[in-house]
Design a protein that fits this description.
The chain is of the alpha+beta class and 111 residues long. The protein contains two helices and seven strands. Strands 1, 2, 3, 4, 5, 6 and 7 form a seven-stranded mixed sheet that branches. The chain is globular and about 45 Å long. It starts with 7 loop residues before the first strand and ends with a strand. The mean pLDDT is 94.
């Protein structure tokens, strides 16, 4: 049996540091993602919304996606939007991303 790929939990501060230090490379990566999507080498299904009866303005959204080409990664963004958080000096939105290897399905990272 092949060894399992490593799994990383990447905290927000580390993500911010990478973004701040590598803006041009990130811009190029995002541009490549759009090119792959334009060529039909992506899967971007409908989003799913979790709503609350007692908090009608709040929601959590599941956004799965896949990029092909040289990227071959799949994942999901789990993003919450709780507008009332602002009254308590909290951010309105927060998110977690899970990145999976498209060949094996194994999760690679949690961001």
């Amino acid at each position: 049996m092949a060894p399992l790929p490593p799994f990383y939990v990447v905290p927000g501060a580390a993500v911010k540091g990478v973004i701040d230090a590598h803006r041009d490379a990130i811009f190029n990566s995002v541009a490549e993602a759009y090119r792959l999507h334009a060529r039909g080498d992506s899967v971007n299904p409908d989003s799913y919304f979790l709503r609350y009866r007692d908090k009608p303005s709040a929601r959590i959204i599941a956004l799965p996606a896949h990029l092909g080409g040289t990227i071959q990664k799949s994942g999901i963004k789990w993003i919450s939007s709780f507008p009332e958080n602002r009254a308590g000096n909290l951010a309105r939105a927060s998110a977690v991303l899970i990145l999976n290897d498209a060949a094996t399905g194994y999760p690679l990272a949690c961001l």
